[in-house]
Design goal:
With 109 residues, the chain is α+β, with helices and mostly antiparallel strands. It is built from 2 helices and 5 strands.
């Protein structure tokens, strides 16, 4: 694996897990990476933490993520089905510390 890449795992709707190699040197957010990987993320606001359509549930690696901003918390707080491990993918910049992160799209059952 390239030293500028990390492995991210995405739990699919059927419960299976897909492994992805994600670049950390391109300034991408998790939302941008998931969209590029053809996941069904609306990202209506374009990554401004204004819509919560890129919400993911962090299944493993939550401790590796940056602290939640007030804007992110306020947006997540509007979701009726918010989970303690929910985050906005647009607010998570890919970085080497996120190696092994496992998420699922929040709107999936």
């Amino acid at each position: 694996m390239d030293e500028n890449n990390i492995t991210i795992y995405v739990q699919e709707p059927d419960g299976s897990v897909t492994e992805h190699e994600a670049p950390t040197d391109m300034g991408l957010s998790l939302m941008e990476f998931l969209k590029a990987s053809e996941y069904d993320i609306l990202a209506t606001c374009g990554g401004m933490a204004l819509c919560a359509t890129c919400c993911v549930d962090v299944l493993e690696g939550e401790e590796k993520l940056n602290e939640m901003s007030d804007d992110e918390y306020a947006m997540l707080d509007t979701l009726p089905d918010l989970l303690p491990n929910s985050r906005l993918a647009c607010q998570l910049q890919l970085n080497p510390d996120m190696q092994g992160l496992k998420v699922k799209l929040h709107h999936q059952s």
